Amino acid sequence: MSALWWPLSDSNGTTPAGFPDNGSCFSATQSTVLKGVGFGGVPIVLLLDFCVFLVLLMVFSIIRRKFWDYGRLALVTDEGFTESTHRRYGHKSSIASNTDELGFCSWLPFILRMDEGKIKARCGMDAVHYLSFQRHLIVLLIVLTVTSLSIILPVNMTGDLLGNDPESFGRTTVGNIQMGSNMLWLHTVFAVLYLILTVVVLRHHTSQMKGMRRETARDTLFVCSVPKTATEEAVKTHFIEAYPSCQVCAVTLGYNVAKLMHLDKEKERAGKNLRYYERVLEKTGKVELINPRLCGHLCCCASSEKVDAVEFYRTQEKYLLEEVRKQTELVPQHRGYGQIHPEGLQRSGVSTLKVNKWSVSFAPHPKNVFWENLSLRGFHWYMRYLMLNFLLFFLLTFLTTPTIIINTMDKFNVTMPIYYLNSPIISQFFPTLLLWSFSALLPTIVYYSTIGEAHWSRSSEQLSMMRKLYFFLLFMVLILPSLGLTSLAVFFRWLFDKKFLADGKLRFECVFLPDQGAFFVNYVITAALVGSGMDLLRLPGLLLYIIRMVFARSAAERKYVKQNQAYEFEYGAMYGWCLCVFTVIMAYSIICPIIVPFGLLYMMLKHLVDKHNMYFAYLPARLDSQVHLGAVNQALAAPIICLIWLYFFSVLRQGFWAPPALFTLVVLCITVFICIGYTCFGNFKYLSPHNYEVKEEDEDTEKGVEENTTVYLPRVLDPKSPASAQEGSKMPSYGSTVGSPAHSTSPLAENVISAMATLVAWEVSFPRQWDRDRKRPFSPSIASLPGQLGNRTGVKNYKFHRVLFWGKILGLKEDYFIAQGRGEDEMKDKKTLYSFNCMDWMLLAPATDSVIEEVSKTAKGRFVGDPSYVYEHVEIHGPGGRDDAIQEEVVTKVNEESRLAVTVHQIDEEASVVPRGAYLKSPHGLVQINRSFGGLSHSEAGKLDNFLHFSKAKNLKKKSILEMGDLNPAIDFLDVLSDDIPKGSWSLQLECASRVLVLRSLLWPGLTFFHLPTTPQHGHIYIGDGRKNLDLPFMI
After folding, report:
1. Edge to edge, what strands does the sheet with 335-340 contain?
2. Could you tell me the CATH number of the domain that includes residue 311?
3. Is 88 found in the same domain as 127?
4. Domain of residue 1000, residue span
5. pTM of this prediction?
6. Where is the CSC1/OSCA1-like N-terminal transmembrane domain (predicted)?
7. d(CA 435, CA 51)
8. Per-residue pLDDT tens for 634-652?
9. Got the DSSP string for 633-667?
């Protein structure tokens, strides 16, 4: 290979000895298409891509306006099955609509105004880390844009090696500078500075990462290769005897549940379809007939025999119930979980144990486990992994750069009719569009191949997806096009075929040639504009939705498809694609600086599109921190590749012994040495881009509280989990399902049913004296409960009878978690506590009238999140006469802790809700829980008169004597919601086939109440910014 390099150093870097000077680096044989055009075709590609982007944006806005739910799939899908199906179909539904997003393009300012609090509440902490990563890359690219356009680009244009034609794209590249010019040192220095700057920016990003969690449980071991004959008692006895210093809490055997989970999903689906037609029969009295064949509703199958829908789905549900019962009786597979006391484990200091053929390691979090994949292990898993990746690599060999298509057309003179056109649309726009299309297809292929690998945890799956996608995209988009090759097949011929080298057709001066630089600029433009528009439309998801609708056999199944069409956000794929384009930008930021501003445009549009899709179109996913930190490591590869590219350019143009080339080589070797030392041996940690601390969630709590309540079983095998319980995320959402308003289900309603097991564990986590009566109703958190409520040693000192999670008030810096402790008198003996981490709780002072008045004058805007923050209000008081020369300035100061106390007090006074009869008032005035309360009936639950304010009555004295005569003083001692002014300040809905009643306050947006009719279960929660809707009277 070196024999090809060295003559280039003697040939002025443009035409190597032994090669004809064709004046162009394109094929001089039959090529009629790949001809250079004005300024590399960048202006025309930018114009065309911008027009396409506007069209796609217009189409998306129309679709979103006309078919509202397509623009927000994550808010209208039904949360009804296991977590493993989230990654393929998604399950979340919605319940209310936000007027800020109903306009033609009103979603755009909504996304621009969206703060981190909304993203965190809707999408989880992983979304915050992902968007923070993109923002740091945007800041980095802003700096690179300034330096590239103000320093490197003018330096490149000072040369005259490629002529002075203003339409020549080559004048903007480093190839325009004469050999031996000292200006080349500038590029080398800036490449090193870019590397240092990237490390600094990424280090700042990791330092800002909060809420980092462990994927592995602190006190649970994952044991593989357990014999099928082993029992839980035998495994537990072994651990007790082998490790007497450890306290063994529980042992759970694993099962091959892949088929069981599939059957359970189908059973749930059949049950939903059955209930749909039962409701239709109940309301209309008409027996619905369906065609049981696939595509039965189409014209070609419309004449087929139809059957009773209720009987068909009832029979199907019974059959699936029996199949599920048979599957649960099968023998366990070769793995199990064992929970031990963490103190003993830390003293033993062992992270990996081997007993005969056992393989022992720390267990991942149960929500991070793909239970259906645990049956694949050992040789079978590795063979599956190798075969899938071999097929993927084989496909990549023939699906690399789209230039091969045009070159193939040239060989057969197909393009001769357009010989005289020399159109930049053909020569620049279509190749870059094809390259983007193939690079957009590749993530889908990698995605399904990674799912086929059957990883045991979500984090390992996302890591594998990110690394594979980044590697393949890098070859497809950057490495092979940069070398002027058309596919990996040519790459292998270049490496191993001596005859191929001897032909002299490979021209190394065409590496990093001006036209190739323009090719990458055009690719980044296409990825920024066309790619962002296509990401908004999500056409593959729409196509899959249409296919599923076609194969649906009935209206119930079509309703199910509408409610189950969202995916979890694939962080691995998004990280890989984003990092690939970022690497392309960095690699050519020195050689071709004009690419950097378009790279900044790509990253900004990508950030906005991802923020929109995460909030509206995708379901939240829980990941381990290693995925986010792995993305940081891969981002660091971008400036290193930039150094490699610059080194290759220096060697090809000036020779190996040129001072800039040697300096670049030394810096490159030092960087690679540090990376290898850090990655393989853990050295040079102070030079790494990582600067974070894993959040020890249970560090200050009594050890073992959370872990001991964790159940390491899939939902289908957990006897304590109700049939409709979900392992998926319980993020709050909103919206109404268009097309089926009468039967729309909500995540709130589903979570109420699924929260029962969580609530029991939540209440049990407190000392028994806090809740002497285990049958009393709860006030749960409808959204995901933020960990165990408090430090036992901190909360129990208040001697509460019970502690309830009140809600969360969002702040700009921190969020306030609110809890309430109840004493003997449920209304008077009530104290409020707040916390930032749900471990350290502080008591709020009561809100007096004077404090309420001061807060009403002073506090404005959002909560800051700092209890010591001081609000000030200045009033000018004068004597009141004509001569106001003497004036007094009165300053009122209130801290945010007082504002928090007043806000909680006002919400309790105006929006706390209980069902009628849930509480009793004794003759002595003591308010206590009514233990005989069995819940409102379904007819009573539909009336606002049967719900009361849980605060001191204000309207009872206004009632007439006749009205008071109809009231029961034992239970009717509170104000009813129907008397609230203004009328219409409450939204009442019966959901889940009238199984769950949901009340929402329009006066205090964010307060939600639920009640399960005919049961004592009820409660309310507030999650909002703590601001009252003062415009409500004008909105009703």
Report:
1. 248-253, 335-340, 216-224, 359-364
2. 3.30.70.330
3. yes
4. 913-1035
5. 0.59
6. 46-203
7. 19
8. 888 888 888 888 888 777 7
9. HHHTHHHHHHHHHHHHHHHHHH-TT-HHHHHHHHH
